[in-house]
Amino acid sequence: MHVPKIVQLRAGGTSVVVELAEPVPRVLHWGTDLGELSDDARAALKLTAEPAVLNNSPDVPRHLSIWPTEAEGWSGTPAHEGHLDGTATAPRPCLTDTRHRPLPDGGAELVMTLADDVSDVDIVVGYRLGASGVLAVDAAVTRRTTARSEGRYQLGGVSTLLPLPRRAGEILDFTGKWCRERAPQRRPLAFGGHVREVRRGKPGHDSPYLMVAGVPGFGFRYGEVWGVHVAWSGNQRYLVEQLPEGAGVHAAVLGGGELLKPGEIALGPGETYRTPICHFAWSDAGLDGLADRFHDMLRARPEHPAGPRPLTLNTWEAVYFDHDLDRLTALADRAAEIGVERLVLDDGWFRGRRDDTAGLGDWFVDENVWPQGLTPLVDHVHGLGMQFGLWFEPEMINLESRLAREHPDWILGSSAGLGPSARHQYVLNLANEQAWSYILERVDALVGRYAVDYLKWDHNRDLHEAVFRDATGADRPAVHAQTVALYRLLDALKERHPALEIESCAGGGGRVDLGILARTDRVWASDCNDPVERQTIQRWTGQLLPPELVGAHVGAAEAHTTRRVTTDSFRLITALFGHAGIEADLTRCSPEELERLASWAALYREFRPLLHHGRVVRADTGDDATILHGVVARDRTSALYCWSRLATSPEAQSGRVRLPGLDAAGDYRVRIRTDVGHPSAHQAAPPAWVAQAMDEWTALPGAVLSRTGVPMPTLNPEQAMLIEVRASV
């Protein structure tokens, strides 16, 4: 039997099989590893990729290609849309070249070149399957230098799509708002498109974040799932789409890409549009299996933070705009005493910045507040053995600033007049080369002068009416150019200061994506340090990001954002599972509070190697009021779990709860860590194993811990307990 050329990419327990069919290749399989395919298996995949010819439909079988268009009878979202002054709207791409090679990490790459003679563009599609089993897909669309038609090719959109099987019948993605980011939402996969479009100029607090399709009822530890993340920090589009006729022999498609504004990408001869990378991952071990793949991929990057993540104190909730050298040096002294390793000076240090209505853009140290500059504070912090960090919001501008008065043309906005401000600010046009150079010079100068170790890079408003005026006075869309300019700015800073760490903050967690994280070292998950909210925010942020990339801080007893009052043990335990820090005025803490913070800091340093290198696990408790999560060492010889309760439950007992990730054949010792206090409970006495483990190591086999499960104490709401597990010697 003749077997057409079929390429298999294999890595990390995943297979992607592509038939290099004419005129456009198609994906025969994406999912579980099929092993090394024999000729018979390849022929079988080819044979079974042929669907039925339906009534009242095209007279040939419908195939779903890697670049679907109407030319193949596809009635869903096309791979790309565009036109030449209203013409050339029906692309007919054809395969012209392929390259297939192994990757150094053990994965493989397939690059396919398509030619579209209708619109005079060439398309290069890249599939890279890394060792983690995550498939990175991107494309470049280039207008030919020999284009036969005049004018520019107006590219309306490009979507990267992969097929889904019929059993993927349920969708999970995310929404949210300020201080409640990454809230999950689930629904059955129905006919039509489930489409999430982001028009904020950044992913936003309601970011789809990760779109997952899976077998109905999938959970953290079970079920087959397929997911996609769009690694882009501007406008985005995610979709799952199911047509009644299916997608070839598949049922639906999953994908996404950049959401382009009309006229944003107009290709002249020789010009290229490059899509963001869409990261696709499959798992047959539920959402934790999916998270494993993304965490492994991120940790394998050369630029991934390698050293211990410093315990951080950020000054915002300690002093707000009240910058005073004596007060801040006293805060630094107290921070050093309890084990803080990095102090970050937040908003309020630059000219005219006594509140949030003025100063953005004037990135010079305010001489009225800091007559000797920041040097006395920086020297004091470094003298205490701590790193020094500084807050910036370089992409924004207040109208009440010298920069706005001198360069109003640098502000993004309509020629009809600026729209409403947001948080008293507007957006600086980084695509303006003069504005870009000014920001680079100012940040670079301050980082160099003060030996800044860390930047907290904020972004506090959406990009509404993000247009600039061109040389003719016409308004042009700017979100794509703004995003590219931001990336170029961050790259330039990193090139000049290779040791500099940068945090992506956007009013908290409004810009959390793998595009920004290719250039930064952590994200601020949320402006909300209320541990009740944080338990959920961090739980779901971890679906994509490992803990060492997620800022998690302890706030004051009364939360700055919700005014909820919680116990310090609950706040401390919650903040332990991330890149930990403090957001409070330590000079107002009692000796007892400081002692507790010092114990917590020691606990963080003790478990930091495990928390920032192990596997994140989450249990399916069946009760939204309780959360069990933890981190297990890769060799499964140690683990740290958090059992927390957010609210009361109808049930008085937890039942047996499994501790996920352990070796069922192993022998373990368990103890309850009470370094930061004992949780309060709604019970007369705890389960016997908990009572014993409070006082001493308690032997429990892996089969009981991971398969049978153990009863958990009925904690009071807003309480948490730490469970340490070690393999028996």
TrEMBL record:
This is alpha-galactosidase. Keywords: Glycosidase, Hydrolase. It catalyses: Hydrolysis of terminal, non-reducing alpha-D-galactose residues in alpha-D-galactosides, including galactose oligosaccharides, galactomannans and galactolipids. It is an enzyme of class 3 (hydrolase). Residues 631-722 form the Glycosyl hydrolase family 36 C-terminal domain. Its EC number is 3.2.1.22. The keyword DNA-binding does not apply. PANTHER family: ALPHA-GALACTOSIDASE C-RELATED, GLYCOSIDASE FAMILY 31. It comes from Actinoallomurus liliacearum. Pfam families: Glyco_hydro_36C, Glyco_hydro_36N, Melibiase. Residues 25-267 form the Glycosyl hydrolase family 36 N-terminal domain.
